[in-house]
Amino acid sequence: MERNSNIPIRNIYYMLSYAYQTLNLSEYKQIGTEDFKNVKELYAEILSIGITVLIRGGLSKDYMSVEETPNVIKGKIDINTTIKKNTLVNKKVAVVYDEFSEDILLNQIIKGTLLYLAHSNKINHKMRKSFYGLLPYFTDVTAVELDLRLWKNVKYNRQNIRYQFIVDVCRYLYEELLFDESSTSQIMKELKDEQRLSSLYEKFIYAFFKRESDYKVSRPQIQWDVDDGFKEALPIMQTDLILQKDHKTLIADAKFYSENMVARFEGGVAKQKSSNLYQIFSYINNWKKGPDEKVAGMLIYAKTTALNQPDHVYQVKCKQIFVVSLDLQQDFNDIKKSLLSYADQFFM
Predict the structure, then answer these.
(1) Tens digits of residue pLDDT in 112-167
(2) What is the C-alpha separation between 328 and 323, in angstroms, rounded?
C-alpha cells in the first residue's frame, strides 16, 4: 500500500518507542541512530537485541500440567486416562502433576519466531545467523508452528509483562514476512497493511498523550446508558483514548485505514464512514458526565494519499465531534505538534 510504504521508518521507530516504554532502555539506543531500508529490518534488529535482553534476565517459567505414564508414581493418578489407554496391561498408571517449566506459550512464540526467521530468505544472512545462535537458550521449549491465532491466547501479568514488547514485535515481523509471501492482489496487500499498523497506531496515540500532555489520560470501557438495566448482548464500548481537564472530556478513537472516506460510486462525493461516526456518537452520548462537564468526540485518522481527507467539526445535539487526519509522513516533531493541536481545538 503506497501510504504505508511512504511512512518513514524513523517515524515507525518513534511510534514504537512511545507505544512501548521498553524501547527506551539503553540496549536499544543504537537503533535510533541507524538507517533501515524497510520496516522488516527495524523489527529484526529490535528482536535481535530484545530477545538477548530477555535471555539475560532469565526466561519466564510457570506451572504446567503434565500427563504421563511413568515407571514411578508421582502426582495424582488419572483413573479415566489409565482406563482409556489401558496402561494397566503394562503395569503402569497415568498420572497428572504440575511442573515448573519454561515451556510456556510466550517462550514458544519466541522460539517459533526464531526458527521462522533463521530460515527466511527475507532476512539478511547476518541476522539469520544471529537468530539461529539464540535457539540453544530455548532447548527446553516446544517448537511450535507459527500461526496468528497463537497471539490471541497470550495473557500478560506482572510476572511476564516484560515479554509484551518482544512478543508483539514477533507478530509485527511475522505478519510482514507472511503477507509478503502470500498476498498477491493489491487489495489484499492494502488490507494486510491496514491490519498490521492499526494496533500500533492506537497504542502510539494513547502513549503519546500519556507522556506529552498534562491531561488526565485513560481508556476505560463506557457503559450503555440503558433505562431498565438490561445490557445482555450489547456490544462493548472500548475507548482508545479519553482526555480530561477542567470539567472537559474528549473521547477519541484512532483510525488507521486504506481509505478514510467513502463514495457511493466512482467520482461521487466523498462521505464520512458512517460506522465510525455512529461509534463515536454512541460513546459521547453514553458517557456518564458530571453536572458541569462538557463532552466531545474525536476521530483521529491516519492520513492517506487520497485527495479528500477528513477535516471537519460537527455540532450534533449540542455536542462537538472533531474529525482530523494525522500525516505520518511528516517530520516527527510536526506529528507531535499536530496531535497536541487536535486536543487544543477542544480544550482551548
Answers:
(1) 999 999 999 989 999 999 999 999 999 999 999 998 889 999 999 988 999 999 99
(2) 16
19's enclosing H/E stretch is helix 9-19
d(CA 110, CA 135): 9
CA torsion sign, 47 to 50 to 52 to 58?
negative
Q: Is 20 helix (H, G, I), strand (E, B) or coil?
A: coil
Over the range 122-146, which residues count as b (16 or more CB within 10 Å of their CB) and which as e? Answer: ebeeebbebbeebeebbeebeeeeb
Residues 69, 87: contact at Cβ < 8 Å?
yes
Q: For residue 194, what pLDDT band results from cuts at 50, 70 and 90?
A: low
| Structural domains present in the chain | 2-61+103-195 (no CATH), 62-101 (no CATH), 205-347 (3.40.1350)
Contact 145, 113 (CB under 8 A): no
Nine-digit cell string for 309: 481527507
- Cell 497504542 locates to 203
What does pTM read for this prediction? 0.81
DSSP β-bridge partners for residue 298? 252, 322
Point out which residues pair with 249 in neighbouring strands: 244, 295
Question: What is the pLDDT at residue 236?
Answer: 94
Is-contact 196 175, C-beta < 8 A? yes
Identify the band that residue 279 occupies on the pLDDT scale cut at 50, 70 and 90: very high
